[in-house]
Amino acid sequence: MISGLRPICLWCLVLPIFWTCVGCYQQPVIIQEVSVDIPKQFTADGTVWEVREMGAEEEATLGLFFVQHPELMDSPEFEGRPSVFASESRLHRFYWLHASAVAPEWRCVEVNGRTSNVIEGTGNPFG
Question: What are the CB-based long-range contacts (under 8 Å, 24+) for 118-127?
């Protein structure tokens, strides 16, 4: 009689654990990231900005900015290659875009000669 109870007791212990684990499984939630398309040209505050390739002039301009602001050099917000824009008056803007679930986050370094400004926001910086 006792030997016949042993398999039943084993099932009594294993079955609740099995059912508990089956209930724990959930479908993964897939979050669609929102990103921004890079335009060839856009206008902001009356200035027309045109996309540029990262050339020697742009690398020197951005390099000077990071020399003047070394605390930003290793910042995760400025990782990767930026999108580069220039105006007719030789202003430069460097955009780092990061897709997110709600709205894209972005950082912009605007350089006007030896002065610079960091702009940040969410959403489409070109619209």
Answer: 118/69, 118/72, 120/77, 124/36, 125/36, 125/95, 125/97, 126/36, 126/38, 126/39, 126/42, 126/44, 127/42
Question: Which pTM value belongs to this model?
Answer: 0.73
Q: Is there a contact between 94 and 102 (Cβ–Cβ < 8 Å)?
A: no
DSSP string, 66-104: HHH-GGGTT-GGG-SPPEEEE-TT--EEEEEEE-BSSS-
Q: Which amino acid is at 103?
A: A
Q: Are 85 and 92 in contact (CB under 8 A)?
A: yes
Mean pLDDT of 59-66: 95
